[in-house]
Amino acid sequence: MSIRSEEKKKHIREKARGVFAQKGFRTVTMKDIVDACGISRGGLYLYYPDTKTLFLDILRTEKEEAGGVIEEAIASGASAGEILRLFLEEQKRELLRSGDTLALATYEYAFGEKDEYLQTQFDEAVRVIELLVRGGVHSGEFVCGDPGGFAREVMYLIEGLKICALTMDMTEEKADETIGAILARLTARPGSRRKKGKKGEGERSDE
Amino acid sequence: MSIRSEEKKKHIREKARGVFAQKGFRTVTMKDIVDACGISRGGLYLYYPDTKTLFLDILRTEKEEAGGVIEEAIASGASAGEILRLFLEEQKRELLRSGDTLALATYEYAFGEKDEYLQTQFDEAVRVIELLVRGGVHSGEFVCGDPGGFAREVMYLIEGLKICALTMDMTEEKADETIGAILARLTARPGSRRKKGKKGEGERSDE
Amino acid sequence: MSIRSEEKKKHIREKARGVFAQKGFRTVTMKDIVDACGISRGGLYLYYPDTKTLFLDILRTEKEEAGGVIEEAIASGASAGEILRLFLEEQKRELLRSGDTLALATYEYAFGEKDEYLQTQFDEAVRVIELLVRGGVHSGEFVCGDPGGFAREVMYLIEGLKICALTMDMTEEKADETIGAILARLTARPGSRRKKGKKGEGERSDE
Amino acid sequence: MSIRSEEKKKHIREKARGVFAQKGFRTVTMKDIVDACGISRGGLYLYYPDTKTLFLDILRTEKEEAGGVIEEAIASGASAGEILRLFLEEQKRELLRSGDTLALATYEYAFGEKDEYLQTQFDEAVRVIELLVRGGVHSGEFVCGDPGGFAREVMYLIEGLKICALTMDMTEEKADETIGAILARLTARPGSRRKKGKKGEGERSDE
DNA sequence: CATGAATGAGAGTTCATTCAT
DNA sequence: GATGAATGAACTCTCATTCAT
């Protein structure tokens, strides 16, 4: 695979990304890709044998190119709490942008092909959150008796928010509220009353 | 539409249900249905013009026929807490059965056709949970400052669990743990520290 | 075939006529007829085995029930010239009404099935015209050296007008002018030069 | 659209022409064309999306490739009368060949799709005839008071002959006679009585 | 490498026609 | 007689995939 052809693959991925973001995975045809890329039918097959392979390659690239934010924060010596906040903020931005995301396509893909991609991503995120929470507990920022369970719960919530964003109405307000509640639980002071981020009534005295 | 034909439609729905449960929504063709039902190509069109209409009719029926559990519990005078536990148990059973469920098909359907079905279902469930929580608070079973926000959070968690069950590994253990944590928050005694139980031992020292 | 069933056939013909008038012949399906008649699919087959048979029966009926005008005129002792004028007037009315006529369906039918219906109709009309012209010549109303050829020419013109009315623009003006010219030729005074005049006035004193 | 593919289109048009000539327009399916051309189902769609587009392209080509006769005659300095005779002769040949013509298909097409094709053709022919008649009058070959009306009448006659040729019996004799009568009227000497000639001889000694 | 014409399988859909009730 | 459910053939159209150039 020469350099030229790696550039061509990149071009294909970039154009195809838009198609997947718009149409999801299942209904995307090789013809859609060909049209979007402005290359020949046969040409596409030289690089990608089917939409599945192409899509996975796009996901791989996406992941490689992204992710920097958290790493930077860690490098800059931010506290665990700050980093977790950043992480959740990032997730929120992502899920609110659902029209321009591969989220839908990724779910559709996962529905059809039971491969491990999503699981891996999920587990990795859980691990990161757990580490951050432990860090926060250690530094006194957070209070949490079961960082592992908590981390998984957080990720389930985020998946729930994502799927709701894709299939129902989702507002920034709702997302903020839910994510705020997550953090609130971590910072609840023993013996004190916790409050969920909603204005006014949002009063919870669950301890 | 005679009685005969209503029976036939029922037969079609039942056979088609299996197809949707197995293949999801997008990839199901009229031919798949025809084959599963053992009827003729044209015959199916007498009852359903396309997979979409058929699928929605299956969902409608499913909903009508289900749902009894909660109603019965209410009728039997169970406490709010018992009913909520039952509801969550039901959700758990549902999501663990994911191979035999229309959940995947429903998501696939929702991905393609932005209709309000999922939203309506979601909102209704939120409303039910909220009522149960309020009932529990009133009777002293539960402690919760923001039943509405809490109910939405619960549903996001459940959606998250569902999507994870469909696309990743999901064990009864994980589901139990997460759902247990939900309930634990409602029954946390004021003044005590809540902890989320660890896997395996399922030990919770929160009361 | 009982009386009841003859009535039913009549009902079918009447409803079906509208369908043929609107859609022509080729594209009319048994289903169209069934829908228009409000009878059952199988029921229609008890009376007519296909659209062709039904259509021919409609034509036959139409012809039987129509035609009175000329006969009445003859009976009332009108002159040959008056009757011919009446006949042409009738043809004109017919062709201008083309949306409500079976003309299109009849042509479509004839295109597909080479039966003799149209030919018979045509020949009969030629014969009638020829007789009228001869009558007119005899009575001194008309001047014509070749009534047979003239009659056929008239019918070709009428067929031409009909087909133009069905496939292009046709105005009463154009039809009048052409039909007027036909009559003008019959009444041309010996020794004068005939010229085709402009619209409407029929008679040309063109020099 | 490369040269290769233009040749292919031509090949399709040629084969399809035979199908339309034989079956008319309405009943021709893409499969008929495919079979006649010896290409694949999908292959045809690369060139023509439906029978309508294909048929119109055939008509267009037909028209482009034809028509030379008149132009040549004009170029060769023939008199208006000679050209008109040629034109009518051409029309006659055309209508007598009706088994091998697109006339039927064209009418069927026009019955279904009210586009302007026929009207345009008709108007153009009228215009040509009118010019020729005027030319003949100017040169003393013809006598005609209303070339425009006359030209339209001629075209109605021709349409009538065409439709009769398609749906009834049409012999060269009948066509000759009618067309002869048209010309006879143009050459009638002032002051003489015109008669339409019978039987075959075409030439009328009616003065 | 790249092209795009060509193929053929397969999905959707409509109807003429039959037949048990 | 009358119904209308059921069948299956036929048509339209779209794509994944191949292959000669």
Q: Count the beta strands of chain A.
A: 0
Oligomer: homotetramer
Sheet with the most strands, sense and barrel status of chain A: none
Taking all Cα atoms into account, the compactness measure Rg of chain A is 20 Å
Query: What's the rounded overall pLDDT mean of chain A?
Result: 86
Provide a quick synopsis of the model:
Four copies of one chain form a homotetramer. Helix content of chain A is 71%, strand content 0%.
Kindly describe this structure.
4 copies of one chain form a homotetramer. Chain A is mainly alpha-helical and 207 residues long. In chain A, 71% of the residues lie in helices and 0% in strands. The longest helix of chain A has 23 residues, at 117-139. In chain A, 35% of the residues are buried. Chains in contact: A-B, C-D. Chains A and B meet through helix 7, helix 8, helix 9 and helix 10 of A and helix 7, helix 8, helix 9 and helix 10 of B. Chain B binds a DNA duplex (21 and 21 nucleotides) through helix 1 and helix 3.
